[in-house]
Amino acid sequence: MLDGVGLTHTNGFTALSEVTVAATPGERIAVIGPSGAGKTTLLRLLGAALRPTAGTVSLLAANPWEMSAPELRQLRTRIGVVHQAPPLPPRQRVVTAVLAGRLGQWPLWKSLASLGYPLAIAGAQAALAQLDLGDRLFDRCDRISGGQLQRVGVARVLYQRPELILADEPVSALDPTLAQQAVRVLLRDAEARGATLVASLHAVDLALAEFPRIVGVRDGHIAFDLPSAQVTESLLHELYAAEGAELPTLANEPRFTAHAVDAEAPLPGARCR
User: Fold this and answer.
1) Do the beta carbons of residue 39 and residue 15 sit within 8 Å?
2) At residue 218, what are phi and psi to the nearest 5 degrees?
3) With contact defined as beta carbons under 8 Å apart, do 143 and 89 qualify?
4) DSSP letter string over 140-182?
5) Which among 125, 192, 199, 251 has most CB atoms closer than 10 A?
């Protein structure tokens, strides 16, 4: 997917350098590392939201940066993004937010009609029900909690059914039980459809317990890329050395607040309208 990829911003800051990561279809990978390590940048490159300044990118058997603009838009409809802070308009209904996952796949008439009146309510409700949100179908997005918003973002990707799922800290606002539930829903969906899932997670224990492959990122480089059973405590402490002696886990991870959601810059992707 990424071969020798680097990204240096116009201000001279290098966010990623010499990153090589490959994934087979249907693989499930957790990306871990301290804050500022480059995890979100890595996912944005994988989603063709950022163009690298070095190396090559291959997504779903195509180089996105050799495509025409219409071809790139079509490629992005095959990629589902779960944002840490879902970019949901506050007055939008939850059902419309979920159905927006397929706007890029539908013909124009159906997309426009769905914005006025939801056309596939049963599908949206089925996706929400997997996350215990079936009763929130017609709630406004500004009337539900930050954790519920994150689960709506997961439901949107479930309804979209993409070939590649990129989840950027998708459960940071959830308590440990709900976080584990949401991650397992994503994993089951990806496995059932043969989709590739790459998720950045701050909670090390959640990543190790649920994902077969772990990629550790530190200071813009790949620190390790190993099966979860081979990730040792010493590797983890080295990875998180700058954050102190205690590893981030579901039990001690600070919850993502509504204030933090407002401040977070989300991954570009198909926005709800």
Assistant:
1) no
2) -145, 130
3) no
4) BGGGS-HHHHHHHHHHHHHHH--SEEEEESTTTTS-HHHHHHH
5) 199
- Per the model's pLDDT, the better-predicted residue between 28 and 267 turns out to be 28
More confident residue, 263 or 184: 184
The SS3 assignment for 248 reads coil
Region 164-170 average pLDDT: 97
Identify whether the C-beta of residue 148 lies closer than 8 Å to the C-beta of residue 136: yes
Q: Across residues 49-78, what is the average pLDDT?
A: 94
pLDDT digits (tens, 9 = 90+) for 239-264: 999 887 789 998 876 554 433 333 33
Domain range annotation of the chain: 2-263
Cβ neighbors of 210 (< 8 A, separation 6 or more) are 30, 180, 183, 184, 187
The listed CATH number (3.40.190.10, 3.40.50.300, 3.30.110.40, 3.40.50.720) that belongs to domain 2-263 = 3.40.50.300
Considering the entire predicted model, what is its pTM? 0.87
Dump the DSSP string for 80-111: EEE-SS----TTSBHHHHHHGGGTTTS-HHHH
CA–CA dist 137, 152 (Å, integer) = 10
